[in-house]
Q: What sequence folds into this?
């Protein structure tokens, strides 16, 4: 029971601790005392962190449940297992550090109540997703993520500050202006997510109807798949996975993630590391963990896992190439996140052939990526503050004034790129091993795709470093003083990568040995060298004038799907519907009353007052009667 | 319970003797007390009958029918009526001023308002179809009067239009009831054993006009848009949905008609819902927009009706969810109207969050209800989707159906957030920041909070357990 209580505190404290500022901002926006209340919100995040650590160290692995609607077999069921205990700490820690950063970053904002309420709700929702075993409990967190991300992405709803936009104002490609405002970014995020969430809700309802259970660990997956057959399995899982695909911005649902950069940088950092987009891959890992596709060789599963494998890899390639062409600090990082998410999907999907270890590799990659990406975003936020420019700018003179940010960027990029012997190298080696294993199954493409993605990935990370600190233009605007809390937060964040490296090298974790083993393989080393080469070449020459770069900058024209094709279809149907409405309205409210009007006038014309016409009518009626009478017969 | 049900009627008759503010509190309180009583009944799973009058056949006994279904509908009616009651106070005074009428007009208004809301409450608890019909007609006449006297635009024409359409619906239903009476020689719900196809058809057509489905839906945007906003906030959330309640009651007695014509009804409901969902995007008048969204949401109810046990649970929850959400939204529309001298045109809005954040946040709560996001509607959608699998199975041949139903839910999310963006976000317009009376925003939040705490125990637990006892389902 105390465990359940701790879970409740874990989820509720962040939300409750942000209520004072939310209420204060409704009634007294901008008051001096109200600007102190965010400390309380961050304290709430801290409480969650403490409890998640307690869960990691002191809870037994297993399931904890609390009755909700027992008669319908819908309960709050929380799981503590390998995935959730680490993911929980990861989420809480990153949210807390970003919270600390946000105290300074957001201190002069005009909408603090909204910001902190949704920021903390966001964290709480993600924690709920992480620890939920019951799919309906998970849905609450899932929907919470959706609504909170909408709130945060569209935070600067006034659309009045160019620094909050994404894209270049005035730049047109065909009929589209490649520029997006915050309020548009929010709408785009929620509309894309909605497109995936509802099929997922259906899939959950279908699982519930077919098995009577909603607890991931208790659902008899294999029986279920056998029962609905090959096609049924494919349809069910495809609909289910539309949720994770949209949340994790896989092709072709990636556009929302790019325009999500209209939100405050703290939001981008949280969105891209441990919440929201990670929720999609995390859910896929969790399902895979319990479906155990490597044991249950149901035919439909292979098709789905193959789909996820290649969707992931191609999204990774797309994201990486696009990142190569982007100049906006945050959007570049956003595209890189999409790329990483693709790799996570691909690696977890490979578990169908490789086994559980593939999921663990993907999960470790998620952790490394989360800390590195959060650090990079926080640095980007500080840079945007310091230069008042959302495009990459900065050179060695500038970086002398931003030493901490410079150092953090170096550590984060080399740790994430997969340069030996830094953190991501070991994990990426594990991933190389997984993809190599697929070759034995006759799938050689994934390995080459992975290598290609890794090389491009490392290149744009170097580009980010180079254009912001080494070879970029000198910033037009400079404001490098202060920022103590921000520096503290991203230094702490990036130091976690070193902790992870130590854990791997000192083998303080059960799977560390596997990563070391893979890292010492020749093949991994070759890939590592390629990546290193690509890193340093780009560092030296960060820009290129190739034509293809423009296509990448325009995100391979994917915005047309979101901004042109789908809306055109929608508005077309709406126009037809509108015309029909007018027709129906005319028929009922003009035509029918008009007909009766005329009819009544016509009938009244009989009543003329002349005896002559009355006699005529009577005579005619009698004649008519007689005619009918004689025709029909008696 | 009967005492609690009488409270609103007594209060409506007393209210004109008080000053507007006191009268408002009296009316709202007289609905809040039965609200808690209905919650109490729900917690106790009360299923009982309180006899009132007895007539000779074929009318039969009049009694108050209390079961978890009527408690669920009853508490919704009470909550919304009470909150809209508070809301009426500043809004209608503002409206009278606009129309050049004095404060005294409020006496007239409050009596009719009270009777209108009370008649819906009594309808939900009616244990006899004739009794039910009587309250249906009272609600119709009272709401007609309110539109006719205090509506916007060409209110007399709209009032008549509303009256004729719903009267056609009412009369068809009445004939249906009479046929039932002839067959069963009673109209007491407990005594009816069979409902002939003719009776079912008449009631169904009548209620589809009232609900409304595609085709007859055309009356609804007129009535909802031109009614004074507190009336819209009862008309759309409560009144039209009661058609769903009547169909549900008839279904529970004898589901033969729906079972026989399940597929065409389902297809009609889906088309109606998608059609109205798309129509929302084209509306430039906020209240008309909400009216089309009502048509779309009422499609859910018709869909749920075709989906067996879980579909029926979905119907009840969908009614509640829509009532909560749409009442909030109509009140936000009214808030904008009251703040900006009748501003209803979407093209003149934009960035309103800047000036009226409290109304904007309330609208978010309302749209969350419509979209089933973190509010009770989540369960409605969930059970409807489960019903699809239960009734139609999970095969390739059902995929188009599944896609269609899922698309309806997607669409309602889309138009919700599209509207929010259009009205409240984006570059603010050059408008002054009005002072919003607390009566114009607090009631909205109270409904919103209720709709959220309804997804957590104990409320959802008792609601679903109660529905299980009447409708079935569960494990």
A:
């Amino acid at each position: 029971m105390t465990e359940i209580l701790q879970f409740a505190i874990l989820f509720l404290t962040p939300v409750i601790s942000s209520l004072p500022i939310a209420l204060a901002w409704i009634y007294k926006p901008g008051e001096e005392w109200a600007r102190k209340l965010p400390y309380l919100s961050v304290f709430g995040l801290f409480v969650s962190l403490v409890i998640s650590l307690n869960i990691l160290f002191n809870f037994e692995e297993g399931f904890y449940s609390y009755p909700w609607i027992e008669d319908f077999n819908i309960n709050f069921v929380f799981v503590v297992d390998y995935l959730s205990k680490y993911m929980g700490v990861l989420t809480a820690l990153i949210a807390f550090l970003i919270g600390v950063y946000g105290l300074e970053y957001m201190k002069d904002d005009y909408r603090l109540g909204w910001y902190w309420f949704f920021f903390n709700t966001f964290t709480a929702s993600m924690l709920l997703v992480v620890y939920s075993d019951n799919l309906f409990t998970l849905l609450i967190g899932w929907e919470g993520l959706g609504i909170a991300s909408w709130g945060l992405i569209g935070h600067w709803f006034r659309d009045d500050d160019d620094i909050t936009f994404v894209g270049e104002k005035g730049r047109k490609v065909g009929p589209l202006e490649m520029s997006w405002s915050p309020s548009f970014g929010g709408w785009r995020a929620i509309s894309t997510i909605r497109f995936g969430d509802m099929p997922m809700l259906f899939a959950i309802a279908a699982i519930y109807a077919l098995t009577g259970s909603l607890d991931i660990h208790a659902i008899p997956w294999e029986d279920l798949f056998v029962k609905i057959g090959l096609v049924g399995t494919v349809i069910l899982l495809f609909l289910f996975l539309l949720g994770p695909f949209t949340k994790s911005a896989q092709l072709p649902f990636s556009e929302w993630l790019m325009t999500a950069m209209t939100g405050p940088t703290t939001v981008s950092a949280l969105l891209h590391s441990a919440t929201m987009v990670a929720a999609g891959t995390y859910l896929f890992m969790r399902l895979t963990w319990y479906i155990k596709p490597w044991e249950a060789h149901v035919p439909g599963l292979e098709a789905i896992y193959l789909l996820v494998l290649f969707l992931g890899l191609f999204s990774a390639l797309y994201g990486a190439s696009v990142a190569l062409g982007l100049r906006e600090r945050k959007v570049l990082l956003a595209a890189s996140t999409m790329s990483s998410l693709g790799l996570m999907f691909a690696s977890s999907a490979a578990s169908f052939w490789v086994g559980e270890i593939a999921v663990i590799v993907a999960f470790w990659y998620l952790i490394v990526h989360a800390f590195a990406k959060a650090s990079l975003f926080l640095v980007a936020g500080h840079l945007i503050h310091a230069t008042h420019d959302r495009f990459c700018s900065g050179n060695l003179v500038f970086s002398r004034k931003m030493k901490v940010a410079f150092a953090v960027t170096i550590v984060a990029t080399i740790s994430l790129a997969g340069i030996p012997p830094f953190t991501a190298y070991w994990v990426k080696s594990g991933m190389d091993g997984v993809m190599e294993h697929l070759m034995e199954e006759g799938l050689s493409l994934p390995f080459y795709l992975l290598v290609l993605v890794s090389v491009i990935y490392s290149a744009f990370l170097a580009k980010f470093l180079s254009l912001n600190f080494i070879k970029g233009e000198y910033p037009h605007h400079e404001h490098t003083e202060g920022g103590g809390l921000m520096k503290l937060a991203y230094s702490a964040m990036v130091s976690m990568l070193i902790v992870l490296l130590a854990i791997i090298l000192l083998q303080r974790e059960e799977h560390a040995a596997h990563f070391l083993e893979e890292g010492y393989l020749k093949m991994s080393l070759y890939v590592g060298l390629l990546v290193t080469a690509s890193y340093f070449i780009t560092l030296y020459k960060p820009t290129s004038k190739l034509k293809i770069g423009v296509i990448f900058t325009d995100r391979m024209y994917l915005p047309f799907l979101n901004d042109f094709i789908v809306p055109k279809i929608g508005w077309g149907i709406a126009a037809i519907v509108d015309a029909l409405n007018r027709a129906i309205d005319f028929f009922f409210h003009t035509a029918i009353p008009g007909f009766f009007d005329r009819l009544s006038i016509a009938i009244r014309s009989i009543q003329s007052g002349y005896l002559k016409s009355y006699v005529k009518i009577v005579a005619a009626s009698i004649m008519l009667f007689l005619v009918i009478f004689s025709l029909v017969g008696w | 319970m009967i005492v609690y049900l009488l409270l609103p009627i007594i209060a409506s008759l007393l209210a004109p003797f008080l000053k507007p503010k006191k009268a408002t509190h009296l009316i709202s309180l007289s609905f809040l007390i039965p609200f808690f009583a209905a919650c109490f009944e729900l917690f106790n799973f009360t299923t009982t009958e309180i006899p009132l009058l007895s007539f000779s056949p074929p009318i039969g006994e009049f009694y108050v029918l209390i079961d978890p279904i009527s408690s669920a509908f009853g508490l919704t009616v009470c909550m919304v009526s009470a909150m809209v009651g508070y809301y009426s106070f500043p809004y209608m005074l503002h409206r009278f001023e606009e129309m050049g009428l004095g404060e005294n007009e409020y006496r007239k208004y409050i009596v009719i308002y009270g009777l209108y809301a009370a008649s819906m409450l009594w309808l939900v608890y009616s244990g006899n179809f004739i009794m039910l019909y009587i309250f249906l007609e009272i609600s119709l006449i009272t709401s007609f009067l309110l539109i006719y006297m205090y509506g916007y635009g060409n209110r007399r024409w709209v009032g008549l239009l509303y009256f004729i359409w719903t009267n056609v619906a009412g009369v068809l239903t009445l004939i249906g009831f009479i046929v039932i009476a002839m067959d069963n020689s009673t109209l007491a719900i407990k005594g009816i054993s069979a409902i002939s196809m003719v009776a079912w058809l008449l009631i169904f057509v009548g209620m589809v006009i009232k609900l409304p489905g595609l085709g007859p839906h055309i009356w609804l945007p007129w009535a909802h848009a031109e009614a004074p906003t507190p009336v819209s906030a009862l008309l759309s959330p409560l009144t039209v949905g009661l058609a769903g309640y009547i169909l549900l009651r008839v279904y529970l007695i004898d589901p033969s008609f729906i079972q026989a014509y399940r597929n065409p009804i389902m297809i009609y409901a889906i088309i109606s819902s998608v059609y109205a969902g798309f129509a929302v995007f084209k509306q430039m008048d906020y209240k008309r927009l909400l009216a089309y969204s009502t048509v779309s949401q009422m499609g859910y109810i018709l869909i749920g009706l075709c989906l067996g046990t879980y579909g029926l649970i979905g119907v009840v929850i969908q009614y509640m969810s829509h009532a909560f959400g749409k009442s909030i939204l109509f009140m936000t529309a009214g808030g904008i109207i009251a703040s900006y001298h009748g501003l209803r045109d979407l093209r003149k809005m934009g960035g309103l969050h800047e000036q009226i954040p409290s109304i904007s946040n309330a609208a978010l709560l309302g749209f969350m209800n419509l979209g089933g996001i973190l509010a009770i509607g989540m369960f409605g959608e969930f059970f409807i989707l489960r019903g699809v699998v239960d009734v139609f199975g999970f095969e390739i041949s059902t995929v188009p159906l599944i896609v269609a139903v899922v698309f309806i839910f997607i669409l309602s999310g889309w138009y919700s957030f599209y509207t929010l963006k259009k009205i409240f976000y984006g570059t603010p317009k050059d408008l002054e920041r009005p002072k919003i009376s607390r009566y114009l925003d607090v009631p909205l939040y109270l409904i919103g909070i209720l709709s959220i705490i309804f997804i957590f125990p104990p409320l959802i637990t008792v609601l679903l357990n109660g529905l299980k006892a009447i409708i079935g389902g569960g494990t």
Residues 2-470 of chain B form one domain. Residues 68-99 of chain B form the longest helix (32 residues). The longest strand of chain B covers residues 48-54. Chain B touches chain A through 61 residues (CB under 8 Å).
